[in-house]
Write a structure and sequence with these properties.
The protein has 266 residues and is of the alpha/beta class. It has one domain: Vaccinia Virus protein VP39 (Rossmann fold, 3-Layer(aba) Sandwich), CATH 3.40.50. It has eight helices and seven strands; from the N terminus they run αααββαβαβαβααββ. Strands 3-2-1-4-5-7-6 form a seven-stranded mixed beta sheet, sandwiched between helices. The longest helix is centred in the N-terminal third of the chain and has 31 residues. The structure holds S-adenosylmethionine. The site of S-adenosylmethionine has 26 residues, from helix 3. This is Methyltransferase type 11 domain-containing protein. GO terms for molecular function: S-adenosylmethionine-dependent methyltransferase activity. It comes from Calocera viscosa (strain TUFC12733).
Length: 266
Amino acid sequence: MPPLFDKILQYLPLPRVLSPLPDFMLAISVGLLPTLYALWSDPSLLFHFKRLQQVFQSNFWGFFGPEVDKGGAPVKIVLLPYAEGVVLEIGAGHGHSLKYMKRDKITKYYALEPNTDMWPELRKALVDAGFSEEKGEAVILPYGAGDVSKIVEQLGGENQVDTLISVLVLCSVPDAKDVLPELCQRLLKKGGSLLMYEHCLSPVPSSRLYQRLWTPIWSIVFDGCRLDKDTMTWVNQIKWSDKHVWRKEGEPEWSLFFHGVGRFTL
Ligand SMILES: C[S@@+](CC[C@H](N)C(=O)[O-])C[C@H]1O[C@@H](n2cnc3c(N)ncnc32)[C@H](O)[C@@H]1O
């Protein structure tokens, strides 16, 4: 956001409702044409709305993902080097998180990614990060976060994961309030950690209202992503033995993309 616009929003709550508009318009202008082309090539997509959303998401993420990654880098540089042992990343996307992890601390990396259009970029990121799928060092699973039993089956049983990574994905997970504790309790080993960086419901009442106003249209365009998920509250309700929660530096609480960051140990 331009600095002047930022300054105005700091003092005037009402115009904050418009703050997601520039990104929203840009995403549509970037994602629309390739999505229409995909629809032209395969008109049956019209009857598979979820798939159509995924096509849009992978196209717009190819353009936006690197910028969003850059914006989150100061947080990820601190958070993601804690990944160790068996790591499972929820909604790995194009694999942006991989470059922040320390390869030699990781014995096996599982990427949960239900959108197969994301896989080619994800595979490139795996290679760049020094993981070989052929050698079984990394596995891509086509499941959503809610498919907990299928994930457990792939892992060979419950409580096999040392580090669970959740970066900008719980916003898109249906029933995340229930799915998050189930994932942590059934996947993590005792002493395992969740590394989380998510945009959440803002603590500022007017911003919460604006997040709720935007969510119906935002979630249609961005593959189910909701701006109004109270993820920070839900993660804090899980019984952790240790937790470190911090804020994204410089981010105002009124931001409609207010982020929750933390390292939570079971
Ligand atoms: C905004 S992108 C973030 C990608 C990656 N975590 C990053 O930070 O670069 C959200 C990702 O979550 C995936 N996703 C959407 N719904 C999901 C679900 N129910 N379970 C797991 N992943 C999901 C999308 O396909 C997409 O790759």
